[in-house]
Amino acid sequence: MKEPRSFANKLGRYYLLFTAGFGGFLLSLTLLEQEGMPRIWIGYLFMFATIVLYAILGVLSRTSNVLEYYVAGRRVPAVFNGMATAADWISAASFISLAGGLYLHGFDGLAYIMGWTGGYVLVALLIAPYLRKFCQYTIPDFLAMRYGGANGEDNAAGRVVRIMAVLATIIVSFTYVTAQIYAVGLITSRFTGVDFSVGIFLGLASILVCSFLGGMRAITWTQVAQYIIILVAFLLPAIWMSVKLSDNPIPQVAYGKLLPKLSAREAVLQQDPKEAEVRAIFQQRANEYQAKLDALPASWETGRRDAQRKLDNIKTRNGSLLDLRSAERALIAYPKNAEIAASEWAEAHAYNLARAKPITPHAEPYAGDAQTSDIKRNNFVALVFCMMLGTAALPHILMRAYTTPSVHDTRVSVFWTLFFILLIYLTIPAMAVLVKYDIYTALVGSDFNHLPGWVSYWTNVDKLTPLFSINDVNRDGVVQLAEITIDADVLVLAAPEIAGLPYVVSGLVAAGGLAAALSTADGLLLAISNALSHDIYYKIVDRNASTQKRVTISKLLLLGVAFIAAYAASQRPGDIISLVGAAFSLAGSTLFPALVLGVFWKRANHQGAVAGMIAGFAVCLYYMLHANPVLGGSTTGQWFHIAPTSAGIFGVPAGLLVMIVVSLLTPPQDSQTSALVDYIRAPEK
Amino acid sequence: MDKTIRRDHWHKTRRMTAWLLLLWVVTTFCAAFFARELTGLSVFGWPLSFYLAAQGASLVYLAIIGCYAWRMRRLDRQARADAAAASARRPAGARP
């Protein structure tokens, strides 16, 4: 008992030293900025310093030992395992987009906060301690042994379950890792100005140095460092804004005072005649598009003729060059045929209509008339449960249960995981309210000739899909709320500048976002490559492989998977957020029933597990394809108006039900399985 | 470890798990489903529904996990102590 205590103490000292060093680094950069170091250099320094740091940690904890490579030697103290899991969990989406999502959607966005924290109750109570007692390496290990029958390791039944579990692991983790690598590319390209694909491969290099050399061991120790960076990067701007706006340094407490003020401000803006004027302009534009859409295809013909005539007019009366150019551009940009016109105008109609909508109060749940409000509420509940069940079935989180010294440590480590996640997640809604209040009071109503510097910076970052835009729609020279659009991804990255902090803090926030994306990508890539090397290669292809060979194969597979994921991300797959949502639903529907019933219901058998996994996956996939317009379905195909992202709300019960029915219809498993379940349930010696 | 001790331990574990899961479901469902009805009340300045969804529910989850870890350690210790007592009794009783 003495040895682990001193190990934890030593670790604590190292990470305190690391935090102090990081603080020194920040301080010296702040001084350098005041001496006039250019912004771009601060961006470079942050990116490279942190990436080099992760690489060094990776090199220091390199290993070829199987136990170290797969489960970090099973000696990670609970607190540090909690920190590492928290970093594993806090993805680019949580760090960068979640606060922005709350800014845009108000109360309705809180489904993610509830869902992504509540899932840990299921992890702690139903799955993690039993996996640790089982004491193997991967999730497919557990399912194959539990549902394989006698000698489940070796027989055909065990292999079928193992291969299905591996497939589920890969499908879920791969969609998720693509999203992370995409975010890495986005952040590096925005803050250092390098090309998007170069950014991806830079990030990839640092992921690989880390997990390639040391597997789970290197990842764990790097993730602890990454968590510290994530925490500092997220809390610093939030604390600053909180002090600035409400004289209270604890943002989680302070925004309780600001929320009523924000609501009051929203009410004032809602009544403002100038706001109404801007909204009316958007409504009018939407109506014009609607009229054009109704009159297709004749309206396309007249529109093109008008544009041509305008150009000819300018030419004949020798108009100015500027007018000529703009008329030419208008003609070139005009839709090429009636079909293109239909889709472009429909899009423009929807866009203008959305901007003509009145303000949604931030604190009001499920705004709208009685029917829409009920639909929103049902979707909220469905999304919350879906995210929870998905969390409890994500392989890269669950495999963390294997790395602690004992079952009790696993339970405590889940507690610490949620604790460290909450330090960030309780700040996210606060951040959204703080920024919103600042924009609603400081930016709205200001003069267009005296906009703050960050506005022009962020409006120019991405020309194709503007992250932030502001136009004087009604030409009165004053900023109205309805004239501003803001993208969910920009809020956290721009927050330091909105709060008036030095640019160093912006660099820090970018480094934090990078750490969040890299740490999650590390864990996911390891989950995939372990499933392939341990479960497919070692357990199925070559049972006599030496331990050296197993680790080498695993490293090679990791390299391969990483490059495929980077390639997929560099293709810029559309709508990446909905893909991540899909990953949660698929994970929950496929793996959750088998994992939980495997421990809590002895009667669950091989046939039941196979049928349940297939049914859960199939129902979930069917609903997503059936109800998602992007994937070829239609919104009319929705059941109870539930959005396709929450497909797991049908998939999980379907999986559970099929598993129970099929298990009851087929003979129970042998006494060996029963003994295994008894062993898993029993307390540790 | 003795079979009856193990069964007893598992029964207690299962009962506690069920109670805590019930608390989890009730918290989640009430905070989400009755959010509109709860807006009128307020805690520390927040409307109650917003507070629950943004902080309250998550803190309840943390408490559930903490309580589970603490109680399970006591149950495990109890089972180990019972087993030790039982094995200490048996050799003594076996000797004439």
Could you characterize the architecture of this molecule?
The complex is a heterodimer of chains A (685) and B (96). With 685 residues, chain A is mainly alpha-helical. Chain A is 76% helix and 1% strand. The mean pLDDT of chain A is 87. Chain B is mainly alpha-helical and 96 residues long. Chain B has three helices and two strands. Chain B has a two-stranded antiparallel sheet. In chain B, β1 and β2 form a beta hairpin. The longest helix of chain B has 47 residues. The radius of gyration of chain B is 21 Å and the shape is rod-shaped. The chains are: A mainly alpha (685), B mainly alpha (96). At the A-B interface, α6, α10, α15 and α17 of A face α1, β2 and α3 of B.
Biggest sheet features of chain B? 2 strands, antiparallel
First-residue to last-residue Cα separation of chain B = 24 Å
Oligomer: heterodimer
Using the alpha-carbon principal axes, give the shape of chain A.
globular
Q: Which consecutive residue ranges of chain A, at least 5 long each, have pLDDT under 50?
A: none
List key phrases describing it.
heterodimer, A: 685 residues, mainly alpha, two-stranded antiparallel ribbon, globular, B: 96 residues, two-stranded antiparallel sheet, 3 helices
Topology:
The complex is a heterodimer of chains A (685) and B (96).
Chain A (H helix, E strand, L loop, with lengths): L1 H33 L4 H22 L5 H6 L6 H12 L2 H14 L4 H25 L4 H9 L8 H37 L3 H51 L4 H21 L1 H22 L3 H19 L4 H13 L4 H18 L14 H22 L3 H4 L8 H19 L1 H17 L9 H7 L8 E3 L13 E3 L3 H9 L4 H39 L5 H24 L5 H25 L5 H22 L20 H18 L5 H11 L4
Antiparallel strand pairs in A: 1-2
Chain B lengths: L2 H31 L1 H4 L3 E2 L2 E2 H47 L2
Antiparallel strand pairs in B: 1-2
Question: How would you concisely characterize the structure shown here?
Answer:
Chain A is mostly helical and 685 residues long. Chain A contains 26 helices and 2 strands. In chain B, helix 1 (3-33) packs antiparallel against helix 3.
